[in-house]
Design a protein that fits this description.
Number of domains of chain B: 1
CATH superfamily of the largest domain in chain C: Ctag/Cox11
Order of helices and strands of chain C: HEEEEEEEEE
CATH architecture of chain B: Up-down Bundle
Chains: A alpha+beta (390), B mainly alpha (540), C alpha+beta (179)
CATH class of the largest domain in chain C: Mainly Beta
Radius of gyration of chain C: 23 Å
Number of domains of chain C: 2
CATH topology of chain B: Cytochrome C Oxidase, Chain A
Strand order of the largest sheet of chain C: 3-1-9-5-7
Strand content of chain B: under 5%
Oligomer: heterotrimer
Helix content of chain B: 55-70%
Number of helices of chain C: 1
Order of helices and strands of chain B: HHHHHHHHHHHHHHH
Radius of gyration of chain B: 23 Å
Largest sheet of chain B: none
Number of helices of chain B: 15
CATH topology of the largest domain in chain C: Ctag/Cox11 (Pfam 04442)
Strand content of chain C: 35-45%
Structural class of chain C: alpha+beta
Distance between the termini of chain C: 53 Å
CATH class of chain B: Mainly Alpha
Largest interface: A-B, 99 and 99 residues
CATH architecture of the largest domain in chain C: Sandwich
């Protein structure tokens, strides 16, 4: 490489970096818009405060970077040996050290003040209008309205077919659930967060709320939503294989709409309970159970035990030709109801209705050529729930 | 200094180095596998560490390639989520404990005795054991991936109860592997401290030591302080899982958050353990290629010590979302912000070293300059993370992943490569291929930024960590990141080529191949004789 | 180094090693003593405290909420009798938790408390609590488990709500140390 090329190559680095910096400066106004590049401003006072704090710190960092790297690149250009630079001899200066220690400290104090104010606001959970109990489990959320008799599970509804690239992914891929958390706007909502098994974390970026769900312990958080809408978040603490598959969806409604929803939801819950009680006296036939059972299986079991019923060797046991599905029906029921401790097999007693449980066990005992001919009835499930088999 | 009989090196490689020995040879240098298995020579042990680290870098890198391949597109294409979790866990463990830390220990072994004018490390036999524990430790860890239940899948931070009640049977292998790595590090640290305190050449006072020696001295104290804490944490995981204790189980009166406190009390100093030697390397290379003495030597020493001390006061900034009391959140926010002051001082001092120097841009200098810029970017994202209310939006997202990869890859790893290029002539006796080295640099620089810079955006846009599949709005950026990853991985093959070629031959290197270099290591021939400084040099 | 010096150093080293092991063992009772004295780790929250002579602070009320969680391994039902109560600090109150063993086997459960806000925990003073020891419920037995407590009048003014959560875990039927 001749001298000209060498010189050009040496200039490349400062040129590239100056260009990048310029690009960065130009793009920050772009970043300031809502995009897939920047933090959301969100829909609460706190989320806006956090966003502004984030942008302020970011701008300060960019400004410092421009100055510091500017000086550095200037030096790399100006003080090149190939340009004829001769090295100076100086190598210390107490004054300069004090200056560039003091100035950063002042800048940091400047940053710390608004940060402290924001944090104090965020941690004040008093005087809430409504309290929601949130419980994280592997791999779903459970919500309970503290002052009302309403509770439900909230599970991912994205189909396995989409995840396995068999069909096209829908708009809210991996961020859609069966039962969103419904909240009123303009009311201070307090969350009591815990977990059932491992540590999870409840995060909705639009609210700037993220709090770990620790098993056996309870954490508090709060928000006050300004705008109606649907807000989506995700679990933010590694919790096992489906950590990426337990999203959070919050539907925020005007207070009247919320009251209506709440009343309706309580009615629906009562009806479901009654239907459940009725199902205990019914005797279901095979086609009904297989059809319902398959639907439940696809929803709740397929992720681990697979559509083929063959599971994943070493991780999730097969149900096809398995001793459990072909053997003692009570043992099979017990496993589905209570899970298997020390494994990933969760207990489904609280997640599915007795009819659904009966159906899915029936399905497992007859699908994939298992053909035991057993039909499990909801009343058997009820009986099993009052008996404990280790 | 003793007379050295040089033979013609033209057909010899570094593996044949015993042929070049001083006349004070009191035993014939061993050959073959015994030389390496039983070595008590700091140069050979340094070489072993460095090759080991390079191998682990590629193994950990392969795991990263698997991760990026799965994340190339939304949907699950290649691997199951449980295996993905094993990959992310092992990638972290191997890079931290198998690539970065052993590389620094290898550099310490090679260079510390040379820099202080000592004939070897203070405890050469313990030095041997420190190294040879590592292949066992990592075999144990890697083999666990092949057990029936799979390898560790709970993140390199192994929080319980995921790592105790819900973990695979191979967790015991993981625990023992960590124990072994810890023992290796502690013994190495003891060796470093004793060597530096006891074996400096006459006239080399503490404040005359090269910065690499200073940073390693401080790093060694950090290691001794925190590796036992890791051993404790990992042992409590073992007993909780297998022996019925309840340290981290609420049912028995314990607390999962206790683990996080214990782990991060180790974990934060650990990341400074992984960067302080980098600072020493950069402080050696910049003055050489700026042909100007390091600016503010005393300041640099004090800043390094301040960083080390402060590193013990910031651990809970990894735990802002667990439900800490307000006072704790504020305390840790302030302390974390404070650490940026001495770090900034160091950066300013390096730039002041460049200022009005006479700068050239050989490969070690390119990597060092890139370090200064890119590590600083990592530092800025770290400062943003320190701000607790904002951290609630960054924690456990790709913003954090971007931050620590900037400080660890474009920080620590780049400094290791800078050091390798800087000292390769001393180790091998040959100049490396400068053109290939420059290709390695530019390919790495561009691809590494393609790989990690967009991760800032992913995190800000809301993508959590440790997920094998993601929502559609993250797809485009993930594709760019994955491409950057593949290119970065490929670029490292150039480095292997450069090293292997330099070991085998090339232009002969003089004792001091870099015009502006200072230090005792440049007073011995290249390649450095098997035994050096059998009589200590006089240091003015 | 001379022989006596080596012997002296060796004695010192062995003594240090033995001493460190001993210190490790001694840490167990030492820890208890330390936490008792300082009140750290909530070690005195799970023990009965003497009934105070202090007066009731009529000027303010604090809302105490009760929340229960059932670990999935335990086939019980576990609910508080009331969801919340407004109390004056200093006022003693008794609340019951209904526990029903829905199985047909005797099982043991242990309730682990957790209070939020965290710094308010020390002001919820339990004089009698079923959480102090494990509870045994016979098959199909229903029990009302009592909690008697008061709020320390020194509770800071900025706390207006205390939430007491109990998570009920299944215990093996062996002796469980009181904590």
């Amino acid at each position: 490489m001749d001298n000209f090329e060498r010189g050009y190559v040496r200039l490349l680095k400062p040129i590239i970096t100056i260009n990048t910096l310029i690009l960065g400066m130009v793009s920050t106004p772009l970043l300031a818009q809502q995009s897939t590049l920047n933090m959301t401003e969100g829909v609460t006072g706190i989320s806006n405060t956090v966003y502004n704090l984030h942008m302020t710190i970011l701008y300060i960092c960019i400004a410092i970077a421009v100055i510091v790297f500017g000086i550095m690149f200037w030096s790399l250009y100006q003080h090149r040996k190939s340009k004829g630079a001769v090295a100076a001899k100086f190598h210390e200066s107490t004054t300069v050290e004090i200056i560039w220690t003091a100035i950063p400290i002042v800048i940091l104090i400047g940053m710390a003040i608004p940060s402290t104010q924001a944090l104090i606001l965020m941690e004040d959970t008093t005087e809430a209008d409504i309290t929601i109990q949130i419980t994280g489990s592997q791999w779903k959320w459970h919500y309970r309205y503290f002052d009302h008799d309403l509770e439900f599970y909230s599970r991912l509804t994205t189909s396995q077919a989409e995840i396995n690239n068999e069909i096209e992914k829908q708009q809210h891929y991996l961020k859609e659930v069966d039962n969103p958390l419904v909240l009123p706007i303009n009311k201070k909502v307090r969350f009591l967060i815990t977990a059932d098994d491992v540590i999870h974390s409840w995060w909705v970026p639009a609210f700037a709320v993220k709090k770990d769900a620790n098993p056996g312990f309870i954490n508090e958080a709060w928000t006050k939503i300004d705008t109606p809408g649907t807000y989506r978040g995700q679990c933010a603490e590694l919790c096992g294989k489906d950590h990426g598959f337990m999203p959070i969806v919050v539907t925020a409604l005007e207070p009247e709409a919320f009251d209506n929803w709440l009343a309706q939801a309580q009615v629906t819950a009562k009806q479901q309970l009654q239907a459940e009680q009725q199902s205990l006296t019914q005797t279901m036939d095979m086609p009904t159970m297989m059809s319902l059972g398959e639907e439940v299986y696809n929803r709740a079991c397929l992720a681990c035990h697979q559509a083929s019923g063959q599971g994943i060797p070493g991780a999730f046991p097969a149900l096809k030709n398995s001793p459990v599905a072909l053997g003692d029906v009570n043992k099979h029921i017990n496993i589905v109801l209570h899970g298997v401790s020390g494994t990933a097999m969760a207990s489904f007693a609280k997640q599915l209705s007795k009819k659904e449980l009966a159906a899915v066990i029936t399905f497992e005992r007859n699908a994939w050529g298992n053909n035991t001919g057993d039909i499990v009835q909801p009343s058997q499930i009820d009986a099993a729930l009052t008996s404990i088999n280790q | 200094m003793s007379e050295i009989q040089l033979k013609d090196n033209a057909d010899k490689t570094i593996l044949d180095a015993p042929a070049i020995t001083t006349h004070i040879d009191h035993h014939s240098a061993p050959h073959g596998y015994k030389r390496w298995l039983f070595s008590t020579n700091h140069k050979d042990i340094g070489t072993l560490y460095l090759w080991f680290s390079l191998t682990m870098f590629f193994i950990g890198g392969a795991m990263a390639m698997i991760i990026r391949a799965e994340l190339f597109q939304p949907g699950l294409q290649l691997i199951e989520p449980n295996f993905f979790n094993q990959m992310t866990t092992s990638h972290g463990l191997i890079m931290v404990f198998g690539a970065v830390m052993p590389a620094f220990v290898g550099l310490a072994n090679w260079m510390l005795p040379l820099m202080i004018g000592a004939p070897d490390m203070a405890l050469p036999r313990m030095n041997n054991w420190s190294f040879w524990i590592l292949p066992f430790a990592f075999s144990l860890l890697l083999l666990s991936l092949f057990t029936e239940g799979g390898g560790p899948n709970f993140g390199w931070t192994f929080y319980p109860p995921l790592s105790t009640q819900y973990s695979p049977d191979s967790t015991a292998m993981f625990v023992f592997s960590i124990h072994l790595m810890g023992i290796s590090s502690i013994m190495g640290a003891i060796n470093v401290i004793v060597t530096i305190f006891n074996m400096r050449a006459p006239g080399m006072t503490l404040m005359k030591m090269p910065m690499f020696v200073w940073t390693w001295l401080i790093t060694a104290f950090l290691l001794i302080a925190v590796m036992p804490v890791l051993a404790g944490a990992v042992t409590m995981i073992l007993t909780d899982k297998y022996f019925g204790t309840s340290f981290f189980d609420a049912a028995g009166g314990g607390d999962p958050v206790l683990f996080q406190h214990v782990f991060w009390f180790f974990g934060h100093p650990e990341v400074y353990i992984m960067i302080l030697p980098s600072f020493g390397i950069i402080s050696a290379i910049i003055p050489t290629f700026a042909r100007k003495q390091l600016f503010g030597y005393h300041s640099m020493v004090y800043a390094t010590a301040s960083i080390a001390i402060l590193s013990f006061t910031v651990w809970a900034h990894h735990m802002f979302t667990v439900g800490l009391p307000l006072a704790a959140e504020l305390f840790f926010m302030y302390c974390t912000m404070l650490i940026s002051v001495p770090t900034g001082v160091k950066i300013f001092n390096w730039i002041a070293t460049l200022w009005r120097g006479s700068i050239t841009f050989e490969v070690p200098m390119l990597f060092s300059l890139a370090f200064i810029v890119l590590f600083t970017i990592g530092g800025f994202s770290g400062l943003m993370l320190a701000i607790t209310p904002a951290d609630f939006q960054y924690h456990d997202t790709y913003f954090v992943v971007a931050h620590f990869h900037y400080v660890l890859v474009t920080g620590a790893v780049f400094s290791i490569m800078a050091a390798a290029y800087y000292w390769l002539p001393k180790w091998t006796g040959y100049m490396f291929n400068e053109k290939l080295g420059k290709w390695h640099f530019w390919c790495s620089l561009i691809s590494v930024n393609l790989l990690f810079f967009p991760m800032h955006f992913l995190g800000l846009a809301g993508m959590p960590r440790r997920i094998p599949d993601y929502a559609l709005q993250f797809a485009d950026i993930n594709k760019i990141v994955s491409i950057g990853g593949f290119l970065f991985g490929l670029s490292q093959l150039i480095f292997v080529a450069v090293v292997v070629m330099a070991v085998r031959g090339g232009k002969k290197a003089p004792a001091k191949p870099w015009e502006g270099a200072e230090g005792l290591e440049w007073t011995v021939p290249s390649p450095a004789p098997y035994h050096t400084f059998d009589t200590p040099p006089e240091v003015k | 180094m001379t022989q006596p010096k080596i012997k002296k150093q060796l004695r010192l080293l062995i003594f240090s090693v033995v001493g460190m092991f001993g210190f490790g063992f001694a840490l167990v009772p030492l820890y208890d003593v330390f936490c008792d004295i300082t009140g750290l780790n909530g070690k005195d929250y799970s023990r009965a405290t003497a009934v105070p002579m202090s007066s009731i602070d009529e000027s303010r009320t604090v809302k105490v909420e009760f929340v229960t969680y059932l670990n999935k391994k335990l086939p019980w039902q576990f609910k508080p009798e009331i969801r919340s109560i407004e109390l004056h600090p200093g006022e003693r109150y008794q609340v019951s938790f209904v526990a029903i063993n829905q199985s047909d086997q005797d099982t043991f459960g242990r309730a682990v408390p957790s209070i939020t806000p965290g710094y308010g925990a020390q002001y919820l003073v339990k004089t009698e609590c079923f959480c102090f020891q494990e509870q045994m419920l016979a098959a199909n037995e229903e029990a009302m488990m009592p909690l008697i407590f008061y709020i320390d009048p020194n509770i800071p003014a900025d706390i207006s709500t205390l939430t007491l959560a109990y998570t009920l875990f299944k215990n093996e039927p062996t002796e469980v140390a009181m904590r």
